[in-house]
Design brief:
Largest sheet: 5 strands, antiparallel
Strand content: 15-25%
Distance between the termini: 26 Å
Number of helices: 6
Structural class: alpha+beta
Radius of gyration: 16 Å
Number of domains: 1
Number of strands: 9
Length: 178
């Protein structure tokens, strides 16, 4: 994949950067909701939680992990854009699913086992415990919602891109970069 830096310091993916990801044939038949639910010891329970509460508690470290990014860091990385403009920018920069919770935290979903490489103090890598994951069609607030919904089963954010976003936001907040 070719990363092209922008004026803001973050790489954005262009159509020529797209490379098809190999998939197992069984995964290609899954919907994003079903793929996410399979992280739960009882996928039926996850689906039930989505129907009843619009959020299911899913274990981290099974199919995905996450990075807990403070909203201030993310907004600084994206040049303090308005919340309504965050979704398209995050989709371009991270190219993967991102959840927002309570307007204070962003949670990009990343592949399992990235904690050994995580070095930022501005955001926290979370690979254990449980995450409140909204139903796949929950895109507006209130509560937890998808800022960038999962498009395909198993398509997650690249941890390097998440780390770059956090580094840029952290530097801007500390005054080290404009």
């Amino acid at each position: 994949m070719i990363h092209r830096p922008t004026a803001g310091g973050l790489a954005r993916r262009t159509p020529s950067d797209e490379t098809p990801l190999p998939r197992a044939s069984s995964q290609s038949a899954l919907t994003p909701s079903h793929w996410l639910a399979l992280a739960h010891p009882s996928p039926a329970r996850a689906h039930g939680e989505w129907r009843t509460h619009r959020v299911a508690m899913l274990p981290l470290g099974q199919r995905f992990d996450t990075v807990r990014i403070p909203a201030a860091v993310l907004y600084a990385a994206l040049h303090d854009v308005r919340p309504a403009a965050v979704s398209p920018l995050l989709e371009q920069v991270l190219d993967g699913p991102v959840i927002q919770d309570a307007e204070r935290w962003f949670y990009p979903l990343v592949p399992v086992s990235g904690a050994v490489r995580w070095q930022s103090r501005a955001a926290t890598y979370v690979g254990e415990g449980w995450l409140g994951v909204p139903e796949i069609h929950q895109v507006p607030p209130p509560g937890a919602y998808w800022v960038v919904p999962m498009r395909e089963p198993g398509h997650l954010c690249d941890q390097t891109r998440v780390a770059e976003l956090v580094a840029v936001g952290s530097a801007r907040l500390s005054g080290a970069s404009s």
